[in-house]
Design goal:
The complex is a heterotrimer of chains A (559), B (328) and C (264). Chain A has helices at residues 2-13, 31-35, 40-68, 79-114, 123-145, 159-162, 167-194, 207-239, 252-286, 293-306, 322-350, 359-382, 384-390, 394-424, 430-456, 471-501; strands at residues 543-546, 551-554. With 559 residues, chain A is an all-alpha fold. In chain A, strand 1 (543-546) and strand 2 (551-554) form a beta hairpin. The radius of gyration of chain A is 23 Å and the shape is globular. Chain A starts with a helix and ends in a 5-residue tail after the last strand. With 264 residues, chain C is mostly helical. Residues 1-13 and 150-187 of chain C have low confidence and may be disordered. Classes of the chains: A mainly alpha (559), B alpha+beta (328), C mainly alpha (264).
């Protein structure tokens, strides 16, 4: 938050050549004007700063893990510290970064503007949700300060009920973060239902809104189950209730069912909004109407619904019945179809387009490449016989990093670069933006492709010591992670430079047709000075480039 | 064709892959060949699709690349026939993957009758293997070309028994028995990993499975067990039957007592007082000892006290082994 | 939740209850209600996890549930059910009064609802205290002093039952003597892991009691506001939303009562 405050006066110094002299960033000053704001844009920015801090923290844990794994024996830390490192990396990245990442940070900023609304339906609830996030994060940090957690982010019983680390603080943190997520989802559902302007029907909404809507449904319906599961775990640890404790007649595998009933749909909380962003980027930067709008929209909903029915595929080797395994395997494959549909539709959108390779588009192309690998590698894991061999190996680690990081994080970065001019009213260096993207892309593949190979060779995950034959793969992976860190530093520097020295952004730098580009950059407090006119969000024919403002303007008489 | 194969999986032919490839370690069990075949099938389908996506993407970028400020483009907004086609083709492919995976999985899941049975005791952070004659080792010795079934239980947290060369893995859960089987096809030494995170020593919870020829295995077991103090599990179970009170209610000659007879009990289907029936397998026997009122055989009173805390896990497995000798 | 507005008056922007980002009071009122319904869905799913745990353990160990539920006091549970149904009625009536702008009725009925809620918690406290005293607790703390006193098994209790309280060690002694086994063969024995029932009982009723307390807090809040005359026939959204919440809390109890107290 302090970074924002120091940059604010600079934003205000920009010559106010038009009526947008007072935008949401400059209308009020001071720390309290941020901490008590009800403006969805400011809350979105506060989320952005918070999740990026979490991403930094989780990234440091990741680099420490990769450094430890450079040698088969001890490198820089002991086994217990290592176990805490991968637990914290997982918990911080998932609960503090990736789940709130796109919906709460980018979604909060753009969702109401895309709808042409002045704010989300419940602004005070929105701020409450943010403070719950902060509160949950405090608990998570508290657990690190009071000795860390060594259970893995999945908190499997009976390990989590018997270990002597501070599991309660971390699970309490995740419990609170869950409620933050629920309130965000609730707010988005009501906003999309009730605040759509006249003239915008369900099938003329931008696809990101479909994706955020499907995400919100999952947040609202799945997260309470995580809440009760973590509550049971806390009660079990604190009072010894014994629901999951085999020594007291409980069933530890029941915990896994409960946990994955939330945590598998949570995977779609992470990836669906990313797919929504990619739908926007591909269409806007191909300067061509999105292909197969309805198929993409329905596939988001299909993924959300089917995502609730596949949790058992995390437990193929746990001893659940062969019948249950078979059903979960079949349902798992059914989720792959809507994902495939989206990829083909994006390619068809690019066919015959006018493709502009701006930085966000580079991220979108990287997404298709990496998500392609991530999604296809899921086929090995959905197939029962091959999953038995690959379960709990680095193959799984590589798979979900390709989907979560290669998918969601890359789409998040694409979206950040796409809406950055709208958020802060500044352009960034296209050259350095692309260099950052390229370095991250290369580093990512080096880091995680080697993990596919060592995983299918039989390297189990969460191993501190490993057999010497795996060392070469680990070395590649660690070197790749350092390269990726360089890429993130370049990107961060590029964006910070844009805040301080970037040229002023036009209202519509990319030629997009959705409503958030009809207001100034940055937007005024209530988003629009004139009532926006919703049309087809993928009809770019009326928008022409005007070199005088280095952005696109609406052609008179068109659209 | 061979060159392509070579490039894809880094070996000359599927047969030669038995020694290991870029993707998979050497294989040494009966199911491993089928698992590998399926792995390569999915790999090739995935590579074809991935190549298709990336080539199209690259071609489109090269062909339609425009500078900033270009005119917008016109084109079809949808094409239902095309969209259904690219939904249905993947559907057929994944359905075939599901079916093949299911078929092979059933082979992995169901042990052939008459498998050689070894008890596995997992605990932080070691494996103990108990052979039918009562000998306990910390490395697993098995005969080649013979089905071996492991009956596994954990003393503390969840572990997972994983032998990459055999392509098998099964969680070992406290409070219940999980079973896994394999038929080793290669003599030699192969690594056992614990694949479920279990704390400080998780990554050191490794061991080896040593596959002997049949003759060597018999010889090894005989030599290793020389001077063995502990009785074979079935005999130890018979002793427990006599000394811990079982005999007062359960006969071994087929006569009904206060409780059902043990003769022919194991593996049979028992009618229960609630009208259902249950197969008397390891988990049922264990439950009946620990939690006797859970399932009452029809015609008997729920009078048996629990033996929870009074019999150790290993003693229960001894009793199970004893019951197995009374099958017929 | 942001303040809402009734559907009665069509929006003039001078309306003090209309938030800046809504166009009409109707839109605002409907948004509030939709938000509340979604929130209620999340509450049902929160309890859903516990209902699932209940279902899994009851189907795996029906004997535990049949045995242990007799420790629960059915008359007290029934009394609490009646209290909550009454409170639902007064709450619904209070919403109606608010709609019609009847100040006095609103205040009285909200107060009555609050009294019912206190009554419910009081009865619950008596039940908890009884269980605490007799060691009818969860997990390792389960150390019952005697056989169940209440419930539908009175015939069985009436039948001669020698040695009415077999402690754990007594059960062990019995195990080694077949003769003793025969002697107790006619008597119903305690299944192992009875504590699981009490674990689930305390989790479900405890979480429900927390919801009752939360409900009382918000009822107290609307009561305070109605005392100050904040609500009119044109603006009563908070009363309406609190009413919805309170009905859900009642509804959950109506499921808990038969599932825990009335097992056959």
């Amino acid at each position: 938050m302090t970074t924002i405050d120091t940059t604010l006066p600079l934003g205000a110094e920009a010559p106010a050549d038009e009526s947008d002299a007072l935008n949401y960033l400059t209308v009020r000053r001071g720390l309290m004007s941020w901490l008590l704001t009800l403006d969805h844009k400011r809350i979105g920015i506060m989320y952005l700063v918070s999740i990026l801090s979490a991403f930094f923290l989780g990234g440091v844990f990741a680099l420490l893990i990769r450094t430890e794994l450079l040698t088969p024996q001890r490198t820089i830390m002991d086994a217990d510290t290592y176990n805490q490192m991968f637990t914290l990396h997982g918990a911080v990245m998932i609960f503090l970064f990736i789940i709130p990442g796109i919906p709460a940070a980018l979604g909060n900023f753009v969702l109401p503007i895309m709808l042409g609304a002045k704010d989300v339906a419940f602004p005070r609830l929105n701020l409450t949700s943010y403070y719950l996030y902060v509160f949950g994060a405090v608990f998570a940090v508290l657990s690190i300060a009071t000795g860390g957690v060594d259970t893995g982010w999945t908190f499997y019983t009976p390990y989590s009920t018997t270990t002597n680390t501070s599991v309660i603080a971390m699970t309490a943190g995740a419990f609170i973060l869950g409620f933050s997520s629920i309130l965000t989802g609730l707010n988005f559902i009501v906003t999309i239902h009730k605040l759509r302007p006249a003239g915008m029907g369900w099938f003329t909404m931008p696809l990101l809104l479909w994706a955020l809507y499907a995400t919100a449904i999952i947040q609202v319906l799945a997260t309470p189950v995580l809440g009760i599961t973590l509550l049971l775990l806390i009660v079990e640890r604190a009072l010894g209730v014994g629901i999951f404790d085999p020594a007291l007649g409980g069933d530890p595998v029941l915990y896994q069912h409960f946990f994955w009933f939330y945590s598998h749909p949570a995977v779609y909380i992470m990836i669906l909004p990313a797919m929504g962003i990619i739908s926007e980027l591909i269409s806007v930067f191909s300067r061509k109407h999105i292909f197969g709008y309805r198929f993409i929209a329905y596939s988001s909903v299909a993924i959300a619904v089917l995502g609730f029915l596949v949790w058992g595929h995390h437990m193929f080797t746990s001893g659940q019945s062969a019948l249950a395994n078979t059903i979960f395997s079949a349902l798992t494959f059914s989720v792959s179809i809507p994902s495939a549909i989206k990829v083909f539709n994006w390619l068809a959108t690019m066919y015959g387009g006018s493709i502009v390779l701006a930085t966000p588009m580079c991220y979108a192309l990287a997404f298709i490449f990496l998500f392609g690998i991530g999604g296809l590698s899921g086929l090995f894991l959905g197939t029962l016989a091959t999953d038995v061999h690959l379960h709990d190996t680095y193959f799984v680690v590589a798979h979900f990093h390709y989907v979560m990081m290669g998918g969601t994080v890359i789409a998040f970065l694409g979206g950040l670069h796409y809406w950055w001019p709208k958020m802060f009213g500044r352009m960034y260096s296209e050259l350095w933006g692309k260099i950052g993207a390229a370095v991250i892309f290369v580093g990512f593949n080096i880091t995680f492709f080697s993990q596919f190979l060592m995983g299918s060779q039989g390297m189990p995950r969460r191993y501190y010591n490993y057999l010497p034959k795996f060392q070469a793969y680990h070395e590649w992976s660690s070197v790749g992670s350092y390269l990726m860190a360089v890429g993130f530093i370049v990107t961060a520097a590029c964006l910070v430079h844009s805040l301080l020295r970037g040229p002023k952004a036009p209202a519509n730098p990319w030629g997009a047709a959705s409503l958030e580009w009809q207001c100034s950059s940055p937007p005024p407090v209530e988003n629009f000075s004139t009532t926006p006119q919703p049309g087809d969000p993928y009809d770019f024919s009326g928008l022409v480039y005007d070199p005088r403002v280095s952005g696109y303007v609406k052609q008179e008489g068109a659209g | 064709m061979h060159r392509v194969w070579n490039l894809v999986i880094g070996g000359s032919s599927f047969r030669a892959q038995a020694g290991g490839s870029l993707w998979l370690p050497p294989r040494a069990s009966e199911v491993a060949g089928q698992v590998d075949w399926l792995f390569y099938f999915i790999l090739i389908v995935s590579l074809v699709f991935f190549a298709l996506i990336v080539v199209l993407m690259t071609l489109f970028v090269i062909r339609y690349h425009r500078p900033r400020g270009a005119e917008s483009a016109e084109g079809a907004e949808h094409n239902t026939a095309l969209e259904i086609t690219w939904s249905v083709i993947p559907l057929i492919l994944v359905a075939s993957m599901f079916y093949l995976g299911f078929r092979t999985f059933m082979k992995i899941a169901v042990a052939p009758a008459g498998s050689y049975e070894i008890l596995v005791n997992a605990q932080k952070w070691k494996w103990l293997f108990t052979y039918p004659n009562g000998y306990v080792s910390d490395e697993l010795h098995v005969p080649v070309d013979e089905p071996v079934e492991l009956m596994m239980f954990s003393q503390d947290v969840i572990h997972s028994f994983y032998v990459p060369a055999f392509r098998i893995k099964r969680d070992v859960v406290p409070g219940r028995y999980n079973k896994v089987w394999f038929r080793a096809t290669q003599e030699g030494r192969f690594t056992i990993f614990c694949a479920e995170y279990c704390g400080t020593g998780h990554s050191d919870m490794t061991s080896s499975v040593i596959v002997h020829s049949r003759d060597d295995f018999a010889k090894w077991l005989e030599e290793a067990s020389a001077g063995l103090a502990k009785k074979p599990p079935a005999e130890a179970g018979a002793d427990l039957y006599r000394t811990r009170g079982c005999a007062s209610c359960h006969t071994t000659d087929g006569r009904p007592g206060i409780g059902p007879t043990f003769k022919g009990l194991f593996g049979s289907s028992q009618p229960l007082s609630d009208g259902t029936s249950v197969v008397a397998d390891e988990n049922y026997v264990r439950e009946s000892i620990m939690d006797p009122q859970a399932k009452i055989v029809a015609g008997y009173q729920p009078v048996m006290p629990t033996y929870r805390g009074r019999l150790k896990d290993l003693e229960i497995t001894d009793i199970i082994e004893f019951l197995k000798t009374l099958k017929d | 939740m942001s303040a809402g507005k009734s559907s009665g008056t069509e929006g003039s922007h001078g309306d003090p209850h209309l938030a800046h980002h809504f166009d009409t009071p109707t839109q605002q009122f409907e948004s509030g209600r939709l938000g509340m319904w979604i929130f209620l869905a999340t509450e049902i799913l929160l309890f859903g996890g516990l209902f699932c745990a209940y279902a899994v353990y009851r189907s795996n160990h029906p004997d535990i549930f049949i045995y242990a539920h007799r420790y629960l006091d059915v008359p007290l549970g029934a009394l609490n059910t009646a209290i909550l149904i009454c409170s639902s009625l007064t709450m619904a009536w209070a919403v109606r009064c608010a709609q019609l702008g009847k100040q006095r009725g609103l205040v009285i009925l909200l107060a009555l609802t609050l009294v019912c809620a206190f009554g419910f918690l009081g009865v619950k406290a008596i039940e908890y205290q009884h269980k605490w005293k007799h060691g009818l607790l969860w997990g390792e703390r389960f150390a019952p002093a005697g056989e169940p006193e209440h419930g539908e098994s009175q015939k069985e209790n009436a039948a001669p039952a020698p040695n009415a309280s077999p402690s754990h060690s007594a059960a062990e002694a019995v195990a080694d003597k077949a003769a003793s086994l025969l002697a107790t063969a006619t008597k119903r024995k305690r299944p192992s892991n009875v504590h699981i029932f009490f674990g689930i009982y305390f989790l479900m009723t405890g979480l429900h009691a927390l919801h009752v307390i939360a409900g009382m807090t918000v009822i107290g809040w609307v009561l305070a506001r109605s005392l100050r005359g904040h609500f009119t026939g044109g603006y009563f959204t908070p009363v309406d939303l609190v009413g919805l919440y309170w009905h859900l809390v009642d509804l959950i109890w109506i499921y808990l009562f038969p599932l825990l107290y009335l097992i056959h």
